[in-house]
Amino acid sequence: MIAEIGLAALWLAAALAVLQMVSGALALRSAEGEANPLAIYARPAAVMQALLAGLAFAMLVWAFAVTDLSIKLVAANSHSMKPMIYKLTGTWGNHEGSMLLWVGVLALSGGLLALFERRLPERTMGATLAVQGFVALGFYAFLLLSSNPFERLPVPAIEGSGLNPLLQDIGLAFHPPTLYAGYVGLSVAFSLAMGALLTREVNPTFARVMRPWVLGAWVLLTFGITAGSYWAYYELGWGGWWFWDPVENASLMPWLAATALLHSVAVLAARDALRTWTIMLGVLAFSMSMLGTFLVRSGVLTSVHAFAVDPERGAFILVLLGLYIGGAFTIFALRAGAVAEGKRFSFSSREGALVFNNVMLSAILAIVLLGTLYPLLTEAFDVRVSVGPPYFNPASAMFAIPMFLVMAVGPLLRWKEDSPRRIRFEVLLLAAILIGVIGLVSFFGQFALLPLLGLGLAAALGVAAFLPLRGRKLTRVPVATWGMVLAHFGIAVSLFGMASEGAFTQERLAAVAPGGSDQVGDYTFTLQSVNPVAGPNWTAIEARIAVSRDGGTQVILTPQARNFWSPAQSTSESALLTRWDGQLYAVIGNQAADGRWQIRMWWKPFVTFIWYGGLLIALGGVLSIIGRVRVDMKRRKAVSLGDERRADPEALGTAPVPAE
Amino acid sequence: MRSRLFLWVPLALFAFFAGLAGYMLTQDKTEFVESAMIGQSLPDFALKPAFDGLPGAARSDLVGGQPRLLNIWASWCLPCIAEAPQLEALQAQGVEIVGIAIRDRPEDVANFLARHGNPYTRIGADDISEVQLAIGSSGVPETFVIDAAGVIRYQHIGDIRESDIPILLAELEKAR
């Protein structure tokens, strides 16, 4: 029954998406003032759809929780012997389940938008909901026609075939749902952008409606990428935190676009400028999340993540991509010329700085996009290439460095027009820090250029982040400004972690016999023993390694090489020793013929700052949402109070009707 | 007019990407890693029996007499269940099949053979995939044609379907 309820809910939700689309489109077509009788269904359809899609997802979770092996998806991806938490997270650790999660979040955000958003003109809202319904419909069709998660097996399986061991980790509980919610949040931004473009309502009100969605999506993406990076770092056992893998890039690209969008929407909300550019970024951000979905699931690129390699599904997503993005860009090309130009501003102003950084972010996005798709292009000519850090690092740094420099001073500038001379002191201070740190570090050793620049920039940015607070009464600084300060400081912290990891990491690969010792950085490590251990669905060899720093107290690290039997796969479980100033990272490898074990050790100074920074950035975003929403609520309340005051005398018939 | 044309650029770029991606989707993508050992002599090995019912397998068991099939499989491998009837059909045609069970347990091997039939004359237990790696096999199941001189003549990747039987028989004939 579970599967049938889920499937029925999914079909009903799809039907409601059609209603939402048609009804929204009718609202768009109806002239100002007179409402089409069918147009009123768009909002309730969106809300109901959210409930049904949520129900379908809940049913699938239930099926996984009880390991219903008559359902193909459960049999193929779960196992009755798995711990409960991984049964649940296994729901979205596969293609169909994750698509259902995606659709569920999409419907939920559409429902929330329909339920709470009353500021936009009804026509714009109708167009927005129509687009949202259209987007959702495509995904329902994809699920129902080609990736049915509730498909039954003719004969129930005796036992499930298990979840990919790499996914049997707590990371799976958070990483995909947050990323999906982020991607999908961008779909709302996309729908709003299309709605505003179709009705030519690209104005500050629209920007204020869009901003919390963009911010929310951006926070979730930031968090998802941070969590994903840390997960890959400790789970893959390769000691790196970012591999420029196509799927990592697929999550980075929407983030870059969303970061640009976030800043341009702020300009639109505050200054009524950058209208077309904001719409463009709204389309681009969602395109990037769709593109990510396509790259991951079609198997056109080789990646450690590709989990549902299936050209047919790829073709389906490509068609959806064509409809959404092709359609959006066509409407953009036809309509954007009709959107009136926004307010002008001079280059040396806060808008100017934001535009500069928007361009830099877009350039980095283009670099990453090109690098990710380049293998696809060359393979069309039968040349297999793999694009890696030697391309991505310098090419993106080329634009990131000027961006960081402008980011340091941008928030200090005034809107519309400002003189650079006014912030002379700050600029000189930051330049002194930058040069000072670089000089100091290079005095102590030979380091690569990029980490060196990164260290200097991180120091300058760290100070610059707090400069906007200078001379202000801290209790009166708006919450949103604190959000910005925190997020910018997070960038500095993260950059410091990256640069420090790049510059100061020490690595030791040693073959050690039990009882033997070796050295990495300040640490001495001794391999005490190697023992077999067993878990719920794996066996492993576990090394006991005693480490001590400068001869201090010993700590035991226990890296494992695990063998899962369902499905059969081996993974490497690194062991980490976290200290405030870095991490010791231990991996056990194979046994050599003479009985010695390969031990790989890294000392990574301040590597954890990469993820602390990511969390700070996300936290800054959260603060910003809180601040913006609070201000919006106040404004709404003031407007409705004003309406009431005007309405009262009108009702009494005493006062003249105020001119609107 | 120039600014208008500029607005079409995103669409043009997207169309180019969509065309490229669509073209790439229609291209066959071989995920298989072919063995570099084809045409080479089988490396030396000697594996203990995978379970009590049949002897283990060594290189010497595959050399001399008729060409044989060397089947890399495992009881935990689902496609191996699918190919079991095809292996029996080959055996019925008089083909000798030597098995190598990858990372397996004796009781599981016995269960598998009891349930899905036993086409093998010998099964060696390759607990650490050493033979599998040495002959250039990257997964289970895979099947190799070994001629009388012990040279690897042909590699079949993945489960053997009914349509593959004539191909394998022809390869065995060629190796004669």
Set down the secondary structure blueprint:
The complex is a heterodimer of chains A (660) and B (176).
Chain A: H1 2-29, H2 42-65, H3 72-77, H4 84-89, H5 95-116, H6 122-146, H7 171-198, H8 204-235, H9 246-271, H10 275-298, H11 311-335, H12 350-379, H13 389-409, H14 424-444, H15 449-464, H16 479-504, E1 506-512, E2 517-520, E3 523-534, E4 538-549, E5 554-557, E6 560-565, E7 568-573, E8 575-579, E9 582-591, E10 597-605, H17 609-652
Antiparallel strand pairs in A: 1-10, 2-3, 3-4, 4-5, 4-6, 6-7, 8-9, 9-10
Helix pairs in contact in A: 1-2, 1-6, 2-5, 5-6, 5-7, 6-7, 6-11, 7-8, 7-10, 8-9, 8-17, 9-10, 9-12, 10-11, 12-13, 13-15, 14-15, 15-16, 16-17
Chain B: H1 2-7, H2 9-26, E1 46-47, E2 57-58, E3 68-73, H3 78-92, E4 97-102, H4 106-116, E5 120-126, H5 130-134, E6 142-146, E7 152-157, H6 164-174
Parallel strand pairs in B: 3-4, 4-5
Antiparallel strand pairs in B: 1-2, 3-6, 6-7
Question: Which features would summarize this protein structure in a list?
Answer:
heterodimer; A: 660 residues; six-stranded antiparallel β-sheet; four-stranded antiparallel β-sheet; disordered C terminus; B: 176 residues; alpha/beta; five-stranded mixed β-sheet; two-stranded antiparallel sheet; 7 strands
Describe the main β-sheet of chain B briefly: 5 strands, mixed
**What is the fold-level CATH name, i.e. the topology of chain B?**
Glutaredoxin
Helix content of chain A: 55-70%
Low-confidence stretches of chain A: 655-660
Give the overall average pLDDT of chain B: 85
Tell me the Rg of chain A in angstroms: 27 Å
Strand elements of chain B, count: 7
Strand order of the largest sheet of chain B: 5-4-3-6-7
Order of helices and strands of chain B: HHEEEHEHEHEEH
Compact description:
Chain A is of the alpha+beta class and 660 residues long. Chain A has helices at residues 2-29, 42-65, 72-77, 84-89, 95-116, 122-146, 171-198, 204-235, 246-271, 275-298, 311-335, 350-379, 389-409, 424-444, 449-464, 479-504, 609-652; strands at 506-512, 517-520, 523-534, 538-549, 554-557, 560-565, 568-573, 575-579, 582-591, 597-605. The radius of gyration of chain A is 27 Å and the shape is globular.
